Amino acid sequence: MLNLPDTIKMIITDFDGIMTDNFVYINENSQSTRKLNYKDVTGCFLLKRGGIDISIISGERNPAIEWIKNIFELEDVHQRIWDKLPVMKSIIEKYNLSDEEYVYIGDDINDLECLNYAKYKITVPNATKRVKDVPGIQITSESGGNGAFREVADCLIKM
Fold this sequence. Notes:
By secondary structure, the protein is of the alpha/beta class. It contains 6 helices and 8 strands; from the N terminus they run βββαβαβαβαβαβα. It is globular.
C-alpha cells in the first residue's frame, strides 16, 4: 500500500518500465513498439481530472510517449535524457514545487539521482535491485506496464 500526502501536485516519472512492461517489440519492418496498459492510461486521465500534473523524463524516445503527451496535453515531456536530475530540478523550479508537492517514479539506474533527490519516491517490483534499495522508496504492488502507474494515481485521487 502506497503512502503519499495530499500535498502532491505533480508526478514526475520515467516511462519505460513504469508505464510500459519494459519490453520493446520489433515488427517485421524493424520498427519498435511498446505496450501500454489501459489502467495506466486511465490513471493519467484521473490525475489530470483531479488537478495533479504529470511530467515524463525518459531515456528513450518513442511514439507511446508522444501519444500520452498529446492525449493528455502534457507540457513537460523530455525524451532521450540520460542525466535526468537537472531536468527534474528545472521542472521543480518551473512549477515552484516544494519537496512535499511532487513524487518521482523510476525503475533503473538512470533514475537513481532523481530517486535519491526526491522526498517521495516510488518504484515497481521489477525495478533493478539498486533502485529498490534506495532509502525511503515505496514499491508498488503491480509491476511496470501492469497497472503500477494507476496504483500511484489511485493513491492520490481518492474516489
